[in-house]
Amino acid sequence: MKKAVILPILFILFGHTGSLAQPGRTVLTRGELERAGVLTLNDIFELTGQWTVSSVDGFTLQYSSNGLAGPGRLHWPVFLNDIPLNINVWGTRSLNKIPVDISQIDSVIVVSEPRLVEGYSMEKGGLFIYTRPHGEGLEAGGQLWTGNRSGDPGPFVYTDRATPNLERLGPIASASMSYSAERISVYGGVKRNLHYVSDPIQSGRILPFAFGDEIFRHPKIELGSFYLRGTHKGKYTYNELQAGLTDMDDMLYTELYGTEIPADTRWSFISLNGRMTATPETSFRYRVSRNRNEVIERANKENRLLRWDQKVITGQFSMQNSFQGGKNEVGIAYNRYALKDRIENGETLATELFSLFNHLHLDVTDWLTSYTDLMVVKEGERRPAFKSLLNFFIKPAEAHRLTVGLSYSERLPAEDNSLWFWVLDKGFGGDTLVRYTDSGIHNSIRLLRSHISWRILFNDRISLKSKIGLSRYLDEYGLFYTLVTRDQRYIETGSFSLETNLDATELMIPLELVFKTTGTIDGSVKYTWTRLLAGTEDLLQRTPEHRFHTRLNWKPVNSFNLWTKIHIRSGTEWSSVRTLDGQTLETNYSTTDVTYRSKLPSTIRWDAGFNKKVWNERVAFKLQVLNLLNEKYREHPLGPRYSFTIFLGMEVGFSRQ
Amino acid sequence: MGRMFFIGMLLFVLTGTGSGSGLYAQAHSDPFRSIEVAFSVQSNINENRFHEQWRSSPGINGGVGFPFYFGTVELNMGYGFFEGKTVGIPDIDRLQISLRWINKTNLFSRLKVGGGPSLLGSVFFFKNVSEEQQTRVRNLYGGTSPETEIGVGLQADLTYKLSSSWSVRAHVSRSVIFTSTKMKLTYVGVGMVKRMNLPGWLSEVLR
Q1: Contact across the interface for A557 and B69, Cβ inside 8 Å
Q2: What are phi and psi of B155, to 5 degrees?
Q3: Is the pTM of the predicted complex or chain greater than 0.95?
Q4: In this predicted model, what pLDDT tens digit does every residue of A131-151 receive, in sequence order?
Q5: Considering only alpha carbons, which residue of chain A is nearest residue B7?
Q6: What string of DSSP letters covers A281-317?
Q7: pLDDT digits over A564-578, tens only?
Q8: What are phi and psi of A207, to 5 degrees?
Q9: Which residues of chain A from 155 to 184 reach within 8 Å of chain B, CB to CB?
């Protein structure tokens, strides 16, 4: 009876917005990542079906969207073992900075619907990474990948058909050691990545100016990182200490300059978090962390400014109460962002944000659960920003799961911690940067989001999930710029402006079929349709309208699995590159096409690979063949052209109790 | 056209080398129980753009194969020599390593036919390179190290069993190396195969 009353009410409440929803998070375990052939952290998003990733250099994410992202696209937090990582710098984000690699990960959670987690607002999604737990005793392990991309000159290197060398990929390497006893555990790991910037469309524009007079023919991005984690488990307490450091010789691409600037970047963090159980119903959680993000540009003929030295201190304290039929968490959070302005007079610019949040989970009936999130954020004299999220999980029948969600969130410019907040609000860079725009970011940015999803479990092996999500962005800001070539050698920004108070409405419909057979074969088929319904076209043209992803895995025995996946996406258009359309870049190679195109055609990519474990699964050999059809495609008009690629990997792991 | 040929051939071998026996007929309940050591001589028989500048000589090929969960996996290494046809075109020593999966089926009691795809990596060592060429390449690439390239291949073979451990094998293979100007090479070869059982501990480790 109750069901018959409440279900129609829910539809009346949310049906008028035309919006429908889904649970909003994808959990990917280590086994699933392995079966799907995930090589780096960047590959994770492909598995969710809803995120789009493209990169100018094939290494650092330059643009990502889960359909929620829209203009302020980098506003989605990344957590490592529940600690927020501040890895954004100059409008770019490199997940490679996270000091663990895929082999060290236990699971990841990709949040694709607005949620409040850990005192953070995830109105545009988020990523949680959890490292592997360790068995008692001593454990050690490591992983090494190296790859080769097709398209080299080969034997024609001494003929007039010489073309650039593209083959070098990696190495991507990591090693770790841990010790665990009954109450304590200690883990230490190192990671090293090497990425050659060899595609002529990129290396060609970098070389003429980037390194001053230095002769440098193989530009590369080099990364080294270190990670430490210690835990202590008491009778009523759990405490965890983490620290990490990543040092990179980078080619940092910024939309402001329209090209890469060689830079040394260093990112470090230290954190302490834990929980205490006071009574069976009440527990307390705390978290403090400190991040430092530094960028120092290397010598370049243009003398472009790229300095950045930021310290971020975060803290959170919350109390969780369980009661019959639900639980509630109330907490406070604090974030302090401090940026050193080395350009003018070395002053430290700073801002502080205070938050109060409440998360209520109610099991209303055995078929209805509600989640209500409320949060208020205050910064200085600005009007506080409010966030409210309401989600219902409904089980109308044994084989059906329905999710309905509605959220309204305001975002303070400071929450983005973007370059433009610091330039316009705090005066970072003085006249050097502020000349690019004459408007400020004064208002809170607003997002109205609604969704409904329906999951049908045909049996314990096949399920189908469909969703409709509608996002309405209000008072967003976006960058509008054009690129031009100079001397047919490199590119730069022609015009640049930051515009505020932009509106956009986006509709996204993902469908997902997940299946497994009697135990040896599993897979999924995903399709996502995205359409900008209203608003500034340029903001979302870079998101493919159609995305199709299918994955199949065959695992006849525990020590061997064979996987394949096909990824299809429709074409995209990049308005900022329109001014470069048809222009060619001069290189030393007569047969190489380096013509810029603002429209990227639709692409199909077929990958396959296997993992073979030997010696009682202590050693694993891995092979990945990417782009089997040898389709020549780019994900970004300024980015590298992908072709047939092979990666070979080896993973070892030993333990002693 | 070439891509469709490869996909077609791949489907052909995956579905049972035309015999109708299919993948499942090749399922091994006891993988890595034995090893086959093979050696053959081979000759490049096709002509294309690559051969406008190089003349090929006979090469050698050797490898090891193991019964896998389905079919057989082989790790092979081959050596070939290519002579530059004109002045200024350097001679090439080519070393090729390939990982191959083969599906075999009995035609008669002693005769087997097999086929399957392979992934390959080729290393090219250049000889008779002039100082001027070395300088030009050094300026372009920053060095004159051997070129390493990747590709795919398909092979079909016919194996005649001479005894319980020895066989004679004839093979034909087609490989495409994905250099900027694709190298497409067709080889025919003949050689001997020796089959041995693996020690139990080694078989267990490999499983």
Answers
A1: yes
A2: -135, 145
A3: no
A4: 988 888 999 999 999 998 888
A5: A629
A6: SEEEEEEEEEEEEEEEEPP-TT-----EEEEEEEEEE
A7: 999 999 998 888 888
A8: -55, -40
A9: 155-159, 161-163, 165, 167
